[in-house]
TrEMBL record:
<keyword id="KW-0511">Multifunctional enzyme</keyword>
<feature type="coiled-coil region">
    <location>
        <begin position="5"/>
        <end position="32"/>
    </location>
</feature>
<comment type="pathway">
    <text>Metabolic intermediate biosynthesis; prephenate biosynthesis; prephenate from chorismate: step 1/1.</text>
</comment>
<keyword id="KW-0413">Isomerase</keyword>
<dbReference type="InterPro" id="IPR010957">
    <property type="entry name" value="G/b/e-P-prot_chorismate_mutase"/>
</dbReference>
<dbReference type="InterPro" id="IPR008242">
    <property type="entry name" value="Chor_mutase/pphenate_deHydtase"/>
</dbReference>
<dbReference type="GO" id="GO:0004106">
    <property type="term" value="F:chorismate mutase activity"/>
</dbReference>
<protein>
    <recommendedName>
        <fullName>Bifunctional chorismate mutase/prephenate dehydratase</fullName>
        <ecNumber>4.2.1.51</ecNumber>
        <ecNumber>5.4.99.5</ecNumber>
    </recommendedName>
</protein>
<dbReference type="InterPro" id="IPR002912">
    <property type="entry name" value="ACT_dom"/>
</dbReference>
<dbReference type="GO" id="GO:0046417">
    <property type="term" value="P:chorismate metabolic process"/>
</dbReference>
<dbReference type="InterPro" id="IPR045865">
    <property type="entry name" value="ACT-like_dom_sf"/>
</dbReference>
<dbReference type="Pfam" id="PF00800">
    <property type="entry name" value="PDT"/>
</dbReference>
<feature type="site" description="Essential for prephenate dehydratase activity">
    <location>
        <position position="260"/>
    </location>
</feature>
<dbReference type="Pfam" id="PF01817">
    <property type="entry name" value="CM_2"/>
</dbReference>
<keyword id="KW-0456">Lyase</keyword>
<comment type="pathway">
    <text>Amino-acid biosynthesis; L-phenylalanine biosynthesis; phenylpyruvate from prephenate: step 1/1.</text>
</comment>
<keyword id="KW-0057">Aromatic amino acid biosynthesis</keyword>
Length: 360
């Protein structure tokens, strides 16, 4: 015996009522949390990345379906975002303009109840957060096809900001045309240099004679189509929608698993969430075996490295700074031991932050 449509819809209405009441009950509790924070701390910090990561992990762990854990966690991401906005509306600076993947990463990490502020360059995002004009910032740090975003690493050398989170985003690039584009007369294609590199093989095969022009962002490439008739742009879905463009060909990235990792930067340290990562910079006097000596303590303490980059130190030619990402929190005993050993060996260490491993 199947239920009638009316009966099923009545049951859904009843559940929606309960869900709505429960969500408001949750929001009231979050508001009370804010009151406690204000009462107990002269400089209250409302956004707590470690707590949010724990909430999202619990959602995934206890999920029974039929909705999958990722989907459920995304719902809760938005619920927390709205609850946090009742405590304080977050201002999040990102590498703009509107419609960039960095904006998409910011909204994936913070949910949609934040004010996202586009800025023109990576160091501007750092400065906005340093000056307190934004609570947090979001910058790209590495791409699985094209490697590290040097500018972000270099800016950490001179900044006191802390990394308080990471986000990964699958990156899909689309070939886009505007209203005025004469598709059979296209002589140039605009995009950010990283994007052109991530679509190099596709462009070689399908648009061999078309000039590739690197512009400051994919969104800027999309924007340009409004007043050009012989050009196309490569950009993501957000830019496509924002500028009212049409996809000529979707997913033209050379690698189907093309992913970019972004960092959340803020002014506070983040307590341990239980599953954390730590990023640090190590520099030492150039000598035979320096890198080996830097890495040995991690091996000795059984700490897994997730990334290692070297960059010119900018203090003297051919001297380098190592950027290390590892598993664990800086308060963990074994990581403390690593830091002590590195310092005892005469290296300079700058801790860039410990932060929860990406959940979404
Ligand atoms: C409610 C809190 O404040 C914020 C909102 C959270 C939530 O809605 O669950 C979690 C962490 C904080 O970002 C809290 O710190 O517990």
């Amino acid at each position: 015996m199947t239920d009638s449509l009316d009966n099923l819809r009545n049951q859904i209405d009843e559940l929606d009522q309960k869900l709505q009441d429960l969500l408001n009950e949750r929001a009231t509790l979050a508001h009370k949390v804010a009151e406690v924070k204000i009462a107990t701390d002269p400089n209250p910090v409302f956004y707590r990345p470690e707590r949010e990561a724990q909430v999202l992990r619990k959602v995934k762990e206890r999920n029974q379906g039929p909705l999958d854990g990722e989907t459920m966690a995304r719902f809760f991401r938005e619920v927390m975002s709205a609850c946090l906005a009742l405590e304080q509306r977050m201002k999040v600076a990102f590498l703009g303009p509107e419609g960039t993947f960095t904006q998409q990463a910011a909204l994936k990490h913070f949910g949609h109840a934040v004010e996202s502020v586009p800025l023109g360059a990576i160091d501007e995002v750092f400065r906005e957060v340093e000056a307190g004009a934004a609570h947090y910032g979001v910058v790209p740090v590495e791409n699985s096809t094209e490697g590290v975003v040097n500018h972000t690493l270099d800016t950490f050398m001179t900044s006191e900001l802390k990394i308080c989170g990471e986000v990964e985003l699958r990156i899909h690039h689309h070939l886009l045309a505007g209203q005025h584009t004469q598709r059979d007369k296209v002589t140039r294609v605009y995009s950010h240099q990283q994007t052109l590199a991530q679509c190099r093989q596709w462009l070689d095969a399908h648009m061999p004679g078309v000039e590739r022009i690197a512009v400051s962002s994919n969104a800027e490439a999309a924007r340009r189509l409004s007043d050009e008739w012989n050009a196309m742009a490569i950009a993501g879905e957000m830019a496509e929608e924002l500028y009212g463009l049409e996809a000529v060909q979707r997913n033209i990235e050379d690698r189907p698993d093309n992913t970019t990792r972004f960092l959340i930067i803020g002014r506070q340290d983040t307590p341990a969430s239980g599953k954390d990562k730590t990023s640090l910079m190590v520099s030492g006097k150039n000598r035979p075996g320096l890198l080996f000596e830097v890495l040995a303590p991690f091996r000795d303490e059984g700490i897994n490295l997730t990334r290692l980059e070297s960059r010119p130190s900018r203090t003297a030619n051919w001297s380098y700074v190592f950027f290390v990402d590892c598993e664990g929190h800086k308060e963990d005993g074994n990581l403390q031991a690593v830091l002590d050993k590195l310092e005892a060996a005469g290296n300079t260490i700058k801790l860039l932050g410990s932060y929860p491993k990406a959940v979404l």
